[in-house]
Amino acid sequence: MEIAPVKWENERLWIIDQTLLPAEYKIIPLDTLEAVVDAICTLRVRGAPAIGVCAAYGVLVPLKELKESRSSLDNARQCFFHALEVLAATRPTAYNLFWALARMKEVGVGRFQDVFDFWQALENAANRIYFEDVERCRKIGEYGADLVPDGGGVLTHCNAGALATSSYGTALSVLYAAKNQGKEFRVFADETRPLMQGARLTAWELASAQIDVTVICDSAAAYVMSKGWVNMVIVGADRIAANGDTANKIGTYSVAVNAHYHHIPFYVAAPFSTIDRSLLHGGLIPIEERSGAELGQGFDRPVVAKDAKVYNPAFDVTPHDLITGIITECGVLYPPFEESIRSALQTQVNCIKH
Ligand code: MRU
Known about the structure:
4-stranded mixed β-sheet
C-alpha cells in the first residue's frame, strides 16, 4: 500500500489525517491557510520532512483564490509573505519546515510578469521539494539497508516512516529496503508517549508492510535491550546541529543512553534538509513545548492529578557521542560528525538534483 501523507492534486492540498490512525484512514483537503496551520499544529500532518512539504504547498493554498481572481502581483506577494510567516510559527523544532519555506521564499522573491507566472514558479518549487524528498528518502533506505541485522532485532522510537515524509520514510525506509533485500528481522516500536506515534503510526505502517512489529511501552526499552533482543536502534530526526547533536521525539535521548549501556549501535536516519548548519551544537536547537493536556488525557478520563503541573517537551537532543552513524541520502556519515557533516554538505549535497 502506497502511503502518501501529503498530496497536491488538481491545485488542492490533501493530507492523511494522522490523528485518526490507526482506527480510521481518512484523506482530508486543506483549503485555507488556517486549515494548513491547524493541521500542522495539531499533528494531523507530522514528521519533519512531511511538515516541510506540507508547508511548501501550504503557501500556495491562499494564493489560489488570488490567481483565480487575477489579483495584482503585489497583492499576491503580500499574501505569500504572510503565509510564510504564519507557517514558520507552527512547529519550532522541525528544521525541514524552515528549510522548505526558505526554498519557497528564494523563488517567491524573484521577478514575475503577473500572478499566473508567480503561482507557476511557486507550484514548481513546491513540486520539486516534494519529489526531492521522495528521492532522498528512497536513497536513505538504500544506504541504510546493509546495516540492518539479518535475523536480529531493531528498535525504533516515534514514527519516522512514510507517514512522516513524502514517501518511504527515513528510519523506516531503511527497514523497508532491508525487507526488500530479503532480510528477516523483528522491530520493537516504542509506543512514544504522549501522542503514541509509535503505537499508532509505526506499528500500523510496519504491520501493513508485513514487517514483524511489537509495540512496547517506552519504559520497557532498556529491559528489552537487556534481554539481547535488540541489535540496532534506528530513529529519525527533527533537527541535526553542525556537530551531529540530534533533536528527535522526546524519549529518543533515553533510548540512546540505554543503547550505549547495552553496546547497541544507535543510528539516526535523516535527509540533508534536516541538518541545520547554523547551529553549532544541540543546545541551540529550539525545543517545542506542547500543552500539558496531551499528558493529562488518557483512558477517556483525566490521568494527571488535578493540581499537578505538567511539563511536556515534544523533543529532546541526543548528544552526538551517543550516535553511531547518520544515514543520509548521500551515504552514512560517521564521527567525528562535525567533519563528516561539513564535508558531506560541501561535496555531496548535490547527490539529489535540485
Ligand atoms: O511530533 P512529531 O510526530 O512531528 O515528531 C516526529 C518525530 O520526532 C520524527 O522522528 C522526526 O520528525 C523524523 S520523521 C522522518
